[in-house]
Amino acid sequence: MRRGVWLAGLVASPVIVGLVYSFAGATGIAGFGAHGSYTLDRIRRVLSEQAVWESLWWTVRTSALATVLAGCAAVLAAALFRGTKTLDRAATTLAVLPLPIPHLVAAATAALVLGQSGLLARVAVTAGWISAPAQMPPLVYDRPGIGLILALGWKEFPFLALVAFSVVATRGAALEETARTLGAGPWQTFWRVTWPVLWRGLGPAAVAVFAFAAGSYETAALLGPSDPLPLPALTYERYTDADLARRGDAFVLSLLGLLLATGVVALHEWLRHRVRRLDG
Amino acid sequence: MSAGLRAVRLGTFVVVAVSAMAPFTLLALWSVGGDWFYPALLPRSFTGRWWGDLLQDGRLLSAAATSLMLGAGTGILTCAAGLPVGQALSQASGWRRHAGAAMAFLPVAAPPIALAAGVQYSFLRLGLGGTLTGVLLAHAIPAIGYGSLFFLGVFEVFDRRVEDEARSLGASPRQVLVRVLLPLLRRPLADAFLLGFLVSWSQVPLTLLIGGGPVRTLPIEVFSLVRAGQDPAAATGALIMLIPALAALAATRLGAARTEVVAL
């Protein structure tokens, strides 16, 4: 049926419009400071800026770490709470509870908890670990991005946990039973069966989470450092720059962001295809 | 079960429970805390001032009303567009299926700020910049992507023979839709509506660039309050943002679990 692809193309069309316009803006055909003719000058200039590469690398690194953090927590939760006892059911419900919390609320809460005079610092003072806010290691606007990684990891955990619970329930149980019948111990069963099933099953979801984390503007703007600026924040800053000539630079960045997302989508679909094949 | 494993289970449960409840508890405390300065661990007194300000000022309330409207509109568009796309995609196979699913996922995965920068010009040309309609359509871009994937998941497990049976009994395609499909899909439709609602309800960058100032939604107000360091007011606004999110979760009972790529 061809209708499905056409309709899906319509769903994707705004992104394609965005890609085309970003390309036109980045090459000087249209947009701010356009001269109507095709040139690669702007792309060359923006891509030769060290700040841009630092921003890109910072965003990729923090999003990847947040994804790994959320993924490990999800695997742990799925492995520990897979039974039908009250504790298992309570744990799975609570783990998924924050799923619909907006990124903005997660970031606002993180700022209140992790800031230098935030709740964590107050706990540290009360416990006698530190005596002044300055002694608190910076966890917000910090160069390593610890606050952002924690907030994004926390935000994405419920989704990955939800997927992990369902992977264990639908794919894991029968295989584990077989492994145990064949004489595998609990650890062997986990490492040889549960873990491989889980990480393969979590693959596509983890890739999606990486894209959400890397693209989240509000978390980056509220928790990220000003040097390097996270990629979504840098894109916004350039796009709203008072200097119109610099505004055009934003199109190189939005082109970069949209192309990255396209790559991530392709990877996601390929992983999903592989997981399906494993199911037979 | 060994004592060690039991301890690990209990310990992990406590961490999961505390981390799940933390935002509600903390934001609620911040929204009623008076005289709560560093290094006090807990507020010295409680006050209804922030909630009172909120009711009197009316800015957050009118922003919340705008957000509710946009959310409802986005929810309707998610259903109206997601259902036919998901249904058509579920009938595709091979590379068409993969390409279709990937294309529906594209607006979901695209960084909203890059997407907004890319489409703003088209919106301005169409006279939609800074208008509520423009913001609604902008919110619908990722929401319809979510909705299509959601309905693709729904139709994968849907028994199509019901449609065939109704057709063979003489129902027109329209009758099949109105009398058979829609009643059967009431639950997924409600879930998709809430999904679209939530995508719009939590949106910041698309509103910021396409709304361009005149359109003030609740997330935009909360975002400015957090940036301005107005903690209690920001916490109060953030708490309001949580209400429909939780209500939706309770209502859908995780209906979104049916899609493999839904994360808000």
Question: What does this 3D model show about the protein?
Answer:
The complex is a heterodimer of chains A (280) and B (264). Chain A is mainly α and 280 residues long. Chain A has 12 helices and no strands. Chain A has helices at 3-26, 41-47, 50-80, 86-96, 103-114, 119-126, 146-181, 186-215, 217-223, 231-239, 244-247, 249-279. With 264 residues, chain B is mainly alpha-helical. In chain B, 76% of the residues lie in helices and 2% in strands. Chain B contains 12 helices and 2 strands; from the N terminus they run H-E-E-H-H-H-H-H-H-H-H-H-H-H. Chain B has helices spanning 3-32, 49-57, 59-90, 95-109, 112-125, 132-156, 161-168, 173-184, 186-201, 205-211, 218-227, 231-252, and strands at 33-34, 45-46. In chain B, strands 1-2 form a two-stranded antiparallel ribbon. Chain B is globular. Residues 256-264 of chain B have low confidence and may be disordered. The interface between A and B is large, with 97 and 87 residues.
Keywords:
heterodimer, A: 280 residues, 12 helices, 75% helix, B: 264 residues, two-stranded antiparallel sheet, 2 strands, 76% helix, globular
